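step: validate -> pass
step: tokenize input -> pass
step: predict -> running
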Amino acid sequence: MAFRVINGVEKTPKLKKRYPSDVEDAEWEFIAPYLALISPDSPQRKHDLREVLNALRYVVRTGIPWRFLPDSFPPWEAVYQQTLRWIDARVFEDLVDDLRELLRVAANRGKQPTAVIYDAQTLQGTIESGNRAGYDGHKKKKGSKVHIAVDTLGHLLALVVTPANEQERDQVAELSRQVQEITGKNVQLAWVDQGYTGIGVGGPRLYW
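step: predict -> pass
step: emit ->
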């Protein structure tokens, strides 16, 4: 182990603490090209992108505020700003879309699905939710509702987040718009439950 001498005092270097949320080598090999918005040797880059992604994953998995990031990660301000750049560049959407196509091909399916499934889940809110929270009388929860569209293999296609009091059927148009944009208007059928039709009871229904 290397040591540094500072003001006559021998100091051990700070070691990077590993966390369960850190990206694995195989994951990073696939993800890295999507995140590199500028050249790796660009003078604007002050922090290792893999460590920035590890910090973002840590925030997502633990739910901590940005400012609570452990000091073994890059500064929270740098992580936050880089996350905004990634979001603006839609790198995560591109990553999910390409990964879904690869998984479908590996399963001997076409790259784009012809059928999808719509569903929704209510998430319990927190104090920070503020005006974004709504009350889901059926689930008896106050918070947000995530409306999702997946292919028949369960791979994510689109999502819409609303207050929990919003009805599933009111999100069909936006989910459908996103699905058709992503798949090149390849989808012909959507499976939904009665929450999306507002009539009757029983099993899944067809929609398009």
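step: describe -> The helical segments are 25-35, 49-62, 76-88, 91-106, 172-183.
step: cleanup -> pass
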